[in-house]
Here is the input.
Amino acid sequence: MPEVPGARGRRGARHSAGLNAQEWTPREMRHSFVSLLPDSGAPLENISRLVGHRNTSVTETVYRKQLRPMLLEGAEAMDQIFPHD
Here is the structure.
């Protein structure tokens, strides 16, 4: 998705997507974007890069609630690989 500069560009993007600009602030749009990416299988490193974070720890801290299911899935996979006795 190309970067949309300025408020006018964001309003246009929301209008094109059929979103109510009163309900969908730039913050809401960003958080929704980040919360949907793990569901589509995007790796944390890619998500971090897409939102402009320096590293994944920033992404994990800021979007902890959105990323929690993805992190739990990874932990469960490791439990299957290395079962407890």
